[in-house]
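Narrative of accomplishments. A recurring question from our advisory board has been how the design workflow behaves on a single, concrete structure rather than in aggregate. To address it, we present the structure tokens for one chain from the evaluation set, followed by the sequence designed for it. No filtering or post-editing was applied between the two.
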């Protein structure tokens, strides 16, 4: 090989080495930085998208906040954090006056701690009759099926330590229609009043004749919930 060709070959080799070295020393770091920047940009865009979704959700919640506060106020009045019997009696007087009745008596008992209701145990299946007995027995009339009881709803945060029940008995004087109006008003009043018993006694007229007036007695319960329990979790079917 001549000296010129050898020099030319060495020149080409040197150029290749310079090109490869330049790629790894200059181009490759730039490409890696560009790839890292692109990955970072993608991650930032994902984070921004998640932030926009969360911001939209918070704005929707903020728009519902006045209604939620109003609902909380109604629920707090329905089951307050204290007995507040004076307000309850005042509400009863207003409901009785609106329905044309008069409260003749009002009694309460001491508050008792709430006892969670345990779910009813499933009923055992009745033994089936033998084939021979079934074939000889006369066909019986179909027995109507009793409606299924509603599922028991419990909340582990509501216990006897923070929830109490106050038994209440109210007697009012008036007609049957007035008693219905009073009962409807009580069930839709500010304070939750669960009516569990109703009885009536007819009142006679001044001359001893029959009267459409009766004394209606409603028995039931009102409730008190400790204020620190109002952040309890949602109820779960138990």
């Amino acid at each position: 090989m001549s000296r010129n060709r050898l020099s030319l070959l060495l020149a080409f080799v040197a150029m290749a080495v310079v090109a490869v070295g330049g790629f790894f020393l200059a181009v490759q770091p730039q490409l890696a930085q560009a790839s890292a920047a692109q990955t970072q940009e993608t991650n930032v865009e994902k984070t921004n998208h998640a932030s926009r979704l969360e911001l939209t959700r918070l704005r929707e919640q903020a728009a519902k906040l006045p209604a939620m506060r109003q609902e909380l106020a109604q629920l707090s009045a329905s089951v307050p954090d204290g007995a507040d019997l004076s307000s309850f009696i005042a509400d009863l007087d207003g409901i009785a006056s609106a329905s044309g009745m008069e409260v003749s008596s009002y009694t309460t008992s001491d508050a008792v701690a709430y006892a969670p209701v345990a779910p009813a145990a499933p009923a055992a299946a009745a033994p089936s009759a033998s084939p021979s007995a079934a074939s000889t027995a006369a066909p019986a009339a179909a027995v109507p099926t009793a409606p299924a009881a509603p599922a028991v709803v419990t909340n582990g945060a509501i216990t006897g330590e923070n929830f109490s029940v106050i038994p209440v008995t109210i007697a009012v004087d008036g007609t049957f229609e007035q008693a219905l109006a009073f009962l409807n008003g009580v069930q839709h009043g500010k304070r939750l009043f669960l009516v569990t018993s109703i009885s009536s006694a007819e009142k006679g007229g001044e001359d001893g004749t029959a009267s459409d007036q009766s004394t209606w007695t409603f028995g039931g319960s009102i409730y008190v919930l400790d204020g620190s329990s109002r952040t309890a979790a949602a109820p779960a079917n138990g």
